[in-house]
Each structure stands twice: as structure tokens, then as C-alpha cells.
Amino acid sequence: MIKTTQSLKNIVLFLLVSILAAISGCAVEKRVAPIPQESTAVPTQISPYNRKDWPHWIDADGDCQNTRQEMLIATSRVAVKFKNARQCTVVSGEWFGVYTGKTFTKASDVDIDHIVPLAHAHRHGADKWTRDQRRVFANDFENLLVVDDSVNQSKGDQAPHEWLPPRKEYWCEYGKRWQQIKEKYRLWFDELELKTLGVLADTCR
After folding, report:
1. Which residues, in sequence order, are CB contacts of 10 under 8 Å at separation 6+?
2. 3-state secondary structure of 72
3. Where are the domains of the chain?
4. Who's near 89: CB < 8 A, 6+ residues apart?
5. Biggest distance spanned by C-alpha atoms of the chain
6. Which of 33, 40, 49, 200 is the most buried (most CB within 10 A)?
7. What is the pLDDT of residues 74-119, one digit of tens each?
8. Beta carbons within 8 Å of 82's beta carbon, 6+ residues apart
């Protein structure tokens, strides 16, 4: 029953973005063209995904602040406050959630989202990567956003044709960043994913 409900949600989502494409009057194919051909090749076999194989929230510069803390510090609209004098852990600040339009002041209320989720990357070419390559991807600031923790959980590892930010004003930027990251790491695209990215590009007006 749960799988059936999720499938219906995916169908409804794709129909919604398809309607937006029709309204825009722009051909989706025009938006798909820039994506390199080699990034669309479907692998013959994919190894099982294990989140432990993707080292994330590392302290790259050895200052006791891991990737999550660095993101919270860099994106807060005000000076952040730390848990103690060591300044390793952020407890408060002010963050605008681009997925919902809500503002948060408690660090515990936000997650750091991988725009292109780790599991999705794994299924689209990254299963052949080394552990070091996965570490780079998992901590790449270009692929990270501070977001509402509940919305991040609802997104899971879904692609744009399966899930989109509730705040439609961010669809244009979301599509751009999703495509840029997948092209940067040469990850392949699903057919429905490509079509949806084209529709999202048509909202950039």
C-alpha cells in the first residue's frame, strides 16, 4: 500500500511539472541538450549502497568544526553562538530555509541537505568510486544546503521527478544546482529526471 501511494505521488508530481512545461510554451528538449552524453549512460550492475562508505561531516582543516558546523557558520544571517568556548559546535544563529521559506534560529532544527543525495549518486555512477572520491562528494559545499530537518527527511534520496521543494520559487535554482552537481561528477541521468530538469529550467524567468 505504501509503495502504491508513493508511486501515485511520483506520477502526480511529474504531471504537475509537465503542465508547467506546457504553460511555458518552451520545448523541454532545448533544456536537455547541454548535458554531456557520457553522463547519461546506464550502468549494467550497481553494488549495494552503504552510507558508511561515504565519510561526511569531516573536519577537513583540523579546527574542530566539521562540515556541518562550517555550513552553519557560513550561511547564518547573524553571528552564530557556540556550545562552549572551544567553538566546535553551533547551537544558534539565523538560517533561511530555501525549500520552505521559513527562518530558523536553533541549529538543532535544521539539517544539511545533499542536493544530489549520496544514495542517488551511488545509483547513478558513484558506486564505482573510491572512498576518497566519495568523501569529496559528501563534503562538497556546492552540493550542500541548510534546510528544514523535516523537509530533508521527506526528500530522502529522491530525484527531481520524484520530489521537489515545497517552495516553488526555488525550483529554478534547485534544478540548476542539481544538474551542475551531476555534470561536475559525471553522474548519469534518468529519462524522467532529464525531462523534469527541463521543466524546472523553464521556471527561470
Report:
1. 161, 162
2. helix
3. 2-201
4. 69, 82, 83, 107
5. 57
6. 200
7. 999 999 999 999 999 999 999 999 999 999 999 999 999 999 999 9
8. 88, 89, 90, 91
